[in-house]
Design a protein that fits this description.
By secondary structure, the chain is mainly alpha-helical. It has helices at 20-27, 50-70, 81-92, 106-122, 144-153, 195-207, 213-216, 223-226, 231-235, 241-254, 257-286, 309-317, 323-335, 340-353, 358-368, 374-385, 398-405, 410-415, 456-471, 476-487, 491-495, and strands at 6-10, 32-38, 75-78, 96-100, 125-129. The protein contains 21 helices and five strands. It has a five-stranded parallel β-sheet, with helices on both faces. The structure holds flavin-adenine dinucleotide (FAD).
């Protein structure tokens, strides 16, 4: 036991349950400073957006309430992380910092390096504890899923009974949601953040909404309800992935015969996605360069020099002239969420038909998604753009998607009101109407909707040809093999995945 002040640095782990750093700091016995640092430089980055801050703001309020209940409220500080931590060391003599390992992007990695440097200069000890099933300094992917599954099966870390306060530590005020630091004005809604919303969403999904999860997973409208909607909660850490994995396991044990039919397959598919989540985050941990570089170097420089700003703006604003693409983008802009298939289709359309570089479209989507999670985001962008070298090229046909997922155009008419008057026959391809006339700005007369900016068939054909030509190049396969070896999944290993057992029911009383 010592009076050494323990700092617990919260980052993308805004909860007190299953929070090993908080638990470890509290066990030490001395005063604790639970700290959240608002880093103005971070909010200037091209992937950061006010929408994320809205979510975080809600979460910090819940976190503060929970910590206050333990005896020490959350301390907010505004500034550069290494400066803030150094000042706390000088003011309170704190010698120990506890945090989760963060697998973010280059900016957060560089920030963490600066913090490590400050710690070694000042004699402060920084303990970083693994999270998200990610293994730091992983030697080989071969055994990864075994380690990940073992971590998911570990006992949930219970919250501390109490914290010894550090009364002399004065916080900065929590910046308002409207603070200019967080960039452009918020358009549309933001999913409610915080632990309370996260636990409620988890409970409603496991108990009710997952009943028809797979059935509606790709439906643009119904997926909003039947998907778990846990992505933002997981991305900002109001739930740990282990809590979710174990809650699924527990729910499965509770299913009666009648429920089994409806839920078991859905929960199993959901569990696989939780594993993908860890798998993708492990990729960026192993190779941080995938934020900025194509996984397969042969694709480097492919699209970037052909950037067409008018196409990019049309795509971002939902004005490409393709009703389903535009409906999805407008829906996403307002809601901050859209289901997987529609994300993939939006990126595919941008990358193939509009020949836009994934780094440019990726920043836009990062800002729009409430659930921006670097590990998943950059890998998926690269996959849907055909630049990994290890995945099959997948070009979505926007008309086929439209007919399959919005057969009567309900979703299109909701989000593209200019087309409300168009009949079902032409709702997916309004340019096919014989009576269509365009004004001198290329707009369909009377409807204010733009003419399509490209022909999706010829533009896709040209794009596929360019990608195929690269894939035929000398050494392409050899390099692809090494990409696969470094970042690819090991299906045979995951197939042997053990079922997660719930070790201790009392730790899982989330609801
Ligand atoms: C281009 C592109 C970018 C994406 N960017 C992000 C991102 O920044 N953040 C993010 O959380 N997801 C991202 N995804 C993956 C996926 O679309 C979302 O995780 C999912 O739609 C979130 O909704 P949900 O929580 O209801 O998902 P559910 O279907 O309920 O899935 C449960 C959880 O599993 C994980 N998950 C689901 N699908 C995937 C997947 N394909 N790969 C890895 N993990 C998955 C997520 O954590 C999700 O919350 C992206 C997909 C694409 C195609």
């Amino acid at each position: 036991m010592t009076e050494d002040v323990q700092i617990v640095w919260f980052k993308r782990d805004l909860r007190i349950n299953d929070h090993a750093p908080l638990r470890a700091a509290s066990r030490h016995g001395g005063p604790v400073i639970p700290l959240y640092i608002v880093e103005p430089d971070y909010w200037q980055q091209p992937f950061a957006a006010r929408r994320h801050w809205h979510y975080i703001h809600d979460s910090l309020i819940d976190l503060n309430t929970a910590l206050t209940g333990l005896g020490q409220p959350l301390v907010i500080k505004i500034g550069q992380a290494s400066d803030v931590l150094k000042q706390l060391h000088a003011a309170h003599g704190s010698q120990t910092i506890w945090a989760h390992e963060e697998t973010g992007n280059q900016w957060t990695y560089d920030r963490d390096i600066a913090v490590h440097k400050m710690c070694s200069e000042t004699g402060v000890t920084l303990h970083e504890i693994p999270t998200n099933g990610v293994v730091r300094r992983l030697k080989s992917r071969d055994n990864w899923s075994v380690i990940r599954n073992a971590r998911m099966a570990e006992r949930i870390v219970s919250k501390p009974a109490a914290l010894t306060p550090t009364p002399a530590c004065k916080p900065d005020p929590l910046p308002d949601k409207a603070d200019p630091m967080f960039g452009d004005k918020q358009i549309g809604h933001v999913q409610k953040g915080g632990r309370n919303a996260a636990v409620a969403d988890l409970a409603s999904f496991l108990n009710h909404r997952s009943r028809a999860y797979l059935y509606h997973i790709s439906a643009p409208e119904l997926s909003e309800f039947h998907c778990s909607r846990l992505s933002a909660h997981l991305a900002w850490g109001t739930l740990s992935v282990r809590e979710v994995v174990q809650s699924v396991a527990k729910r499965r044990t509770q299913l009666g015969e009648g429920d089994k039919k409806q839920f078991a397959r859905n929960l199993s598919a959901f569990g696989s996605r939780l594993a993908w989540r860890c798998h993708f985050i492990q990729k960026i941990e192993d190779q941080p360069k995938i934020e900025t570089h194509c996984m397969h170097p042969a694709f480097e420089g492919l699209r970037v020099n052909d950037h067409n700003e008018a196409y990019f703006q049309a795509w971002c604003s939902g004005n490409t002239g393709y009703p389903f693409i535009d409906a999805c983008m407008r829906n996403l802009t307002v809601e901050g969420w859209i289901t997987f298939r529609m994300r993939a289709m939006l990126v595919s359309f941008a990358s193939y038909q509009l020949w836009l570089d994934w780094r440019i479209t990726g920043h836009h989507l990062a800002r729009v998604f409430t659930d921006y999670e670097p590990g998943i985001h950059y890998s998926q962008l690269q996959m849907q753009s055909g630049v990994t070298g290890i995945n099959a090229m997948r070009v979505y046909n926007p008309i086929k998607q439209s007919i399959e997922h919005d057969p009567t155009g309900v979703f299109i008419r909701k989000w593209v009101p200019e087309l409300r008057g168009v009949s079902d026959e032409f709702i997916h391809q309004p340019w096919k109407r014989k009576e269509t006339l365009f004004d001198d700005k290329g707009r369909i007369l009377g409807e204010g909707y733009p003419a399509r900016i490209v022909d999706h068939v010829t533009s896709a054909r040209e794009a596929k040809q360019k990608i195929s030509d690269i894939r035929k190049g000398a050494d392409f396969r050899k390099t692809a093999k090494s990409v696969l070896n470094k970042l690819g999944s090991r299906k045979t290993v995951s197939a042997r995945r053990k079922k997660v057992k719930v070790e201790d029911d009392s730790q899982l009383s989330l609801f």
